[in-house]
Amino acid sequence: xxxxxxRTERVSLSLLSMPLNKYAPQVANHRRTQVAILEGxxxxxxxxxxxxxxxxxxxxxxxxxxxxxxxxxxxxxxxxRALCESEAERFVNLARNSTSAIEAxxxxxxxxxxxxxxxxMRKSDxxxxxxxxxxxxxxxxxxxxxxITLVVNNPVMxxxxxxxxxxxxxxxxxxxxxxxxxxAIIKSANx
Length: 191
Hints:
This protein is mostly helical and 191 residues long.
């Protein structure tokens, strides 16, 4: 009995000395690089606009080499797609981490209304913004719509809420308006 537990202990100790994931540092570095690229892209959209932004500028602002940028993304469209996916994930998490449905919608509304990249796109790239906002058959929109359905607990009100949020990308609200309208939507959803 003692020998068996000793053998088990030796096996356990040898497992502890092995790295849990020998690729963890590389994965972490890859993720940091992706985040830098996407944050740099969003910053460029906020300052120079979508059309004037180049892959070279993205690499420069993200402080990565051009080769690194192209190892992660093949072109500007793929960087923009990754940025949209990242923002959609951020919005879904924001809604999920809210304490109430009203808070979730209010926080989403404020985030969208105060986003500097969207603000600059309204001024410098309105056609690109309109094109993006009108492609609601995309899987990103479906993911956001599913998350909103969980917040408002009503599929019909979910569609209305998604359209309300899209409207704010074009016509932002103040924080007070965001709160009032979020309360009205949730009240309507609960009728």
